[in-house]
Amino acid sequence: MDSRIDVVGDVAQAVSTGALPGWDQVEELVVAAHARYADDSSGVLADYIPVLAQADPAAFGVCVVDADGREHAAGATTTRFSIQSISKAFVYALVSERLGHAHLRERIGVDNTGLAFNSVMAVELHGGHPRNPMVNAGAIATTALVEGDGPDEQWEAVVDGLSRFAGRRLEVDEVVYTSEAATNSRNKAIARLLESYGRIEADPLDVVDVYTRQCSLLVDAHDLAVMGATLADGGVNPVTGERVVSEQVATDTLAVLASTGMYERSGEWLFDVGLPAKSGVAGGIVAVSPGKGAIGTYSPLLDPAGNSVRGQRATAYLSRALGLNVFASSVHVPTRPTSPEEPA
Ligand code: GLU
């Protein structure tokens, strides 16, 4: 029995507002964020998809795109890498656009599992319910729900949708795809397990193939910033002006990222940095400040949870310096009458 109570009802969603500091200040801080961590070589390259171990450990780029589509870039912001797990956020948004808030919550879930991104145990612990759309089980179950009759149409919908988020046609890195497709037995096992629980209706191996391709799409730090800025801008890509998803879907996706986007460090990340974000094992991170803009970073040296070390540090620096933490406030100085007897 579903014990959840409906806490929202039909109350309309108003939005809180705010803006980034002036253009020059953002430009200066993006350059400073890059310079500050450029020589930081902590972390290790991913190797569980063999070809990822060949990335250049020195590559490091930081890009901010604001909700007006203006860009600030420092370092390797046009170096391409596979999007990997970051694709989960945007495929989730596309499926959410198609099926809606309640359906996604019921079918996939919106909570952290607290277990590794490729955990089989997490699926077993919850009786086959994927629970977290930002780890492999939930992401594979989400990809199975992409619009389309069969894997070819579904793949087209994924590339088309993620390309609209990025504002340019994205392409697969065939070398990464082939490398992962040859070594992804665990994801195939997860898909079969989901099938056994009735959580995937299509052919599980076809679904894993679409999922593996989506993870192999090539992006750069600038693309990530534009994709994130689309979620910051109520679902409209601020560079192309195209509406990609609804405001509600952008809101839902960011809420999911806040609780799940940084693997099993998501709580600590929110505590330290205060921004919804998603990272991928090739070294990308996108962090989103609703209404203001997004930060895209690339550096392939990872911490033990699979999050880019320099990317986390640069994003944390910018969250603080630009005032992006969604939980931060200071004592309010009244600017309007606080009661009828007390005129301004
Ligand atoms: N394609 C990877 C996988 O499914 C994504 C891993 C990640 O970025 O977390 O295992």
Instruction: Please name the fourth-level CATH homologous superfamily of the largest domain.
Output: DD-peptidase/beta-lactamase superfamily
Widest sheet: strand ordering? 2-1-7-6-5
Mean pLDDT: 93
Order of helices and strands: HEEEHHHHHHHHEHHHEEEH
| Overall tally of structural domains | 2
Unreliable residue stretches: none
- Rg on CA atoms, Å: 20 Å
How many runs of DSSP E, i.e. beta strands? 7
Examine the secondary-structure arrangement and name the CATH architecture of the largest domain: 3-Layer(aba) Sandwich
Oligomer: single chain
* Percent helix range: 40-55%
**Approximately what portion of the residues adopt beta-strand conformation?**
5-15%
Helix and strand arrangement:
Layout: H1 23-37, E1 61-66, E2 71-75, E3 81-82, H2 86-99, H3 101-107, H4 121-125, H5 136-143, H6 151-166, H7 174-181, H8 185-196, H9 204-215, E4 218-219, H10 221-232, H11 247-260, H12 266-272, E5 277-279, E6 284-289, E7 293-298, H13 309-321
Antiparallel strand pairs: 1-2, 1-7, 3-4, 5-6, 6-7
Helix pairs in contact: 1-13, 2-3, 2-6, 2-11, 5-8, 5-9, 6-9, 6-10, 8-9
This protein binds glutamic acid (GLU).
Residues 84-85, 117-118, 136, 180, 187, 215, 280-281, 306 line the site of glutamic acid (GLU).
